[in-house]
Amino acid sequence: MTQNLISLDLAEALPEFDAALDTIDRILKAFVSLDAEQMRRLSKLGDKTESFCRQTAAILDQNHQALPPGFDLEELKRDLAAFDALRPRLNRLEALTSKCADTQTALGSDILSASYDGYALLKVFGKADNVTPLRDSLRSGVRRDAANPGNGSAA
């Protein structure tokens, strides 16, 4: 095998991994899932608007008398606190997700490389009878991958 980016046996780690994911899933039950239309319609908090919101919350906190009874300043403050608490955790989850995706890509590349090497060896050693189905599968797979490059199978 000419390429081996990673050698990984997950058998022992999978139960703990799955338990950790179950725990995260349980903790995130209160979180929302928005569809594409909802996301499109929402106002987005960016760097400039975040600064504006923080300054506004601070000024509102100093001027309670200017607020109508229906304005929930405490909810605004809770939302800001939750936003601040969530940010580093989201960054960590994104880094872990990226690491998992990179590992899967490396594994897929190793699998494809080893399969190509094995296929070439079968051809060299005259096992032509056994490679016909592989050759046909490879041809149809390459056509499928070329027609649908985003399917992830051409790692």
Can you put this structure into words, describing what you see?
By secondary structure, this protein is mainly alpha-helical. The protein has a domain at about 45-150. Helices cover about 70% and strands about 0% of the residues. The chain has five helices and no strands. Helix 3 runs antiparallel to helix 4 (about 75-125). It is elongated, with a radius of gyration of 26 Å.
Task: Please report the total strand number as a whole number.
Answer: 0
Determine the number of helices (DSSP H or I, runs of at least 4 residues): 5
Q: Which secondary-structure class do the elements indicate? A: mainly alpha
- Radius of gyration, in Å, reads 26 Å
Tell me the major beta sheet: none
Per DSSP, what share of the residues sits in E-state strands of 2 or more residues? Answer: under 5%
Fraction of residues in helix: 55-70%
Average pLDDT figure: 88
- The rounded distance between the terminal residues' Cα atoms is 17 Å
Task: Identify low-pLDDT runs.
Answer: 150-155
Please, what is the oligomeric state?
single chain
Shape: elongated
Order of helices and strands: HHHHH
Secondary-structure map:
Layout: H1 14-27, H2 36-41, H3 47-62, H4 73-124, H5 128-147
Helix pairs in contact: 3-4
Brief digest:
With 155 residues, this protein is mainly alpha-helical. It has helices at 14-27, 36-41, 47-62, 73-124, 128-147. The chain has a domain at 45-151.
